[in-house]
Here is the input.
Amino acid sequence: MMTTIIDGKAIAADLREKVAQAVSALKSTHDIQPALAVVLVGEDPASQVYVRNKGIATEKAGMKSIEHRLAADASEDDVVNLVRKLNAEEGVDGILVQLPLPSHISSSRVINEIDPDKDVDGLTEVNAGRLILGKDGLVPCTPQGSVIMAKTVRPDLTSLNAVVVGRSILVGKPLSMLLLAENCTVTMAHSRTADLAAVCREADILCAAVGIPRLIKGDWVKKGAIVIDVGINRVEEGGKSRLVGDVDFDSAKENASAITPVPGGVGPMTIACLLRNTVVAAARRRGVGEID
Ligand code: NDP
Here is the structure.
């Protein structure tokens, strides 16, 4: 059996191209240029890199990128006031607050100030509620990217047993809801799950979002399963630093029919889905219909 290595870079590039086409259609038919505002508080080096990459990708897709930087000692009210200002700005379609925020600021308060229709990370309580209720909303990017990847190898996921390991607000829970919406039978596993190996062995689609390097072993993977590895873990091996997933890729690929690598799997999909959410938000807010 040949195992498909699901190429996140290629799928993300396709998605970015589709977004760019939708942006150019919005421009030519409605004279709209979607705009994404990113708020960065403090000097965290990793966050600065993420924000820069998001800005570049936004502009490459033909959208406007607006960056707001606040000092590390900005107060919670400063950040909330900036978010409120961006909510009120007609030309801003998406608002993203880069996490983590400095520890003196409540990220949940700040996030929930974002207008849900501009919440391109899909993290507000309103968008979480819409996802559970099956209403149109903005869906968190990493889970959305995970489902898109699974559907490249199996367009109809109906009736499959899906196991999601990890129940975080950012990944595991929304991913479970999306798979349920795809008509999978979903099991949510976590740190208190009894006999995780046995639960994983039942999965036709096995998704790992844990944050433990190579937790999921090859013999936990059912023959023919689709494996989506969301984990990004830095490990030191043989004197070198490298990224590995939550799945032991080499042994898992012996059993899987398709598997995402790390790096080059779910990671690249996250920004592509952010761009997608921005153009979706722009079209909805400005009343010009739905983007496919
Ligand atoms: P969290 O730390 O928020 O959640 C981890 C989850 O894993 C928790 O639900 C926890 O269970 C569960 N867990 C912990 N240990 C075990 C165990 N031994 N067995 C089973 N479940 C366990 O992490 P995130 O969801 O934010 O991220 C998960 C991974 O995905 C990380 O590696 C992160 O770097 C990566 N990530 C990748 C992104 C991308 O762009 N590809 C984006 C976001 C995250 P419990 O609830 O019981 O504590």
Summary: The domain at 141-267 is CATH 3.40.50.720 (Rossmann fold). Residues 142, 165-168, 170-172, 189-193, 196, 209-212, 215, 230-233, 266-267, 270 surround NDP (CB under 6 Å).
